[in-house]
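Suppose you are handed only these lines of text.
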Amino acid sequence: MLPRPLVAQGAQPRIVVIGGGFAGATAARFLKLTDPRLNVTLVEPNPIYTACPFSNEVIAGLRDMRAQLFRYDRIAGDGVVMVHQTATGVDGQARSVTLGNGTKLNYDRLVLAPGSDPRFDALPGYDEAATERMPHAWKAGAQTLLLRRQLEAMDDGGTVVMVLPALPYRCPPASYERASLIAYYLKTKKPRSKLVVLDAKDTFSMQRLFENAWKELYPNLEWMPASSGGNPTGVDVATMTVSSDFDTYKADVANVIPPQKAGRIAELAGTADRTGWCPVEPVTFESRLVPGIHVLGDAAIAGAIPKSAFASNAAAKICAAAVAKLVRGEMPAAPKFVNTCYSLVAPDYGISIAAVYHVENDAITIVPGSQTSASALMSFSGSADSLRSTNRMFGLAETDSD
Ligand SMILES: Cc1cc2nc3c(=O)[nH]c(=O)nc-3n(C[C@H](O)[C@H](O)[C@H](O)COP(=O)(O)OP(=O)(O)OC[C@H]3O[C@@H](n4cnc5c(N)ncnc54)[C@H](O)[C@@H]3O)c2cc1C
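From them, the structure of the protein bound to flavin-adenine dinucleotide can be written out as follows.
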């Protein structure tokens, strides 16, 4: 069921990408690098991208926020047309995108990569206004700095309460990395304080490695799984309390990570299903609901692929290659790729998990036996080096921080 090749018809295929995060920016750049004849436009409202990876280190006072900021110059330099607007509508039938300024962009194929949004209807008491008192800091930027300031302002002897949602959500390991690094900050700067983590889950990825580290380093961290009464049931901003199945906790600082869904534009485009996320085909990442739209990154439900920057980057390269083939009327090849996740539990102590993914029975699954996890003492800057060497090990392109 391949479309007629646009290239053969002499047209210059128009690919619009919405969202300039790890997924969208990578897809736009690789589309252009794969086939310079493609007319690629990247729609992203912000001229500067604020990255989530390493933002937990900003919260713990280990890293400057400026290190999280990235511009789009290199992507524009590769020939991608940058449009700094918000996409406000998508017409999948007419194949057009409407922008905040009223302009319409026509496309032959659309790549949607808007990331995830908090669900403000899921945890009673936690609405958009509540984020000003109880930051989620699950989108990096002002929220990250707010949580940092609140921790700094808290008296020694205070209680920090973290709320963690059920799966699926953006980068679950990052929530346990955050718990570790907040515990590190309290231990080193406010030793009479404690951290209570209320979790809607009973198990999580790299659990044994995290728990070993907590036992060794952080007696001030109490993790309460759902089955021990940790399941969060609501918050009250006025009294700064968080309720769980069994108890109510008074917080001096509350970090509430709410349940999430695909970014709003994915819903408007009709690509999100009842779960709030976007089901996609495994080889092309094309939406299972709206033809001609490919969904990448956190917004997609792509089998076993985790919602991480690393996986978003890998999937975007595969999707770019597939889209370049589809517009030529060719058949994309089934992908094989890797995800690696690094988490710091202290400045010199990191843990990691890696797995290889492939397509099997129309779904992306983990290659049996390929998943490995490890812990290591390391230098803080070493994590970027290990990321690069892992990429090399699996034969992947270097991740370019620009
Ligand atoms: C604290 C924390 C730590 C993390 N650490 C790691 C880590 O160490 N390693 C790792 O691999 N992953 C990590 N992650 C996960 C990673 O940040 C996400 O998986 C990744 O950002 C997903 O990329 P994305 O492109 O789908 O979404 P995003 O990076 O959120 O980008 C989405 C982009 O779309 C734009 N957008 C949204 N709506 C529109 C619209 N309507 N019009 C135009 N543009 C729009 C937004 O402005 C944004 O720039 C972490 C996450 C958190 C919260």
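What can we learn from it? The pocket of flavin-adenine dinucleotide is lined by residues 18-24, 43-46, 49, 52-53, 55-56, 86-87, 113-115, 138, 170-171, 174, 263, 265, 297-299, 307-310, 312, 341-342 (CB under 6 Å). The two ends are 37 Å apart (CA to CA).
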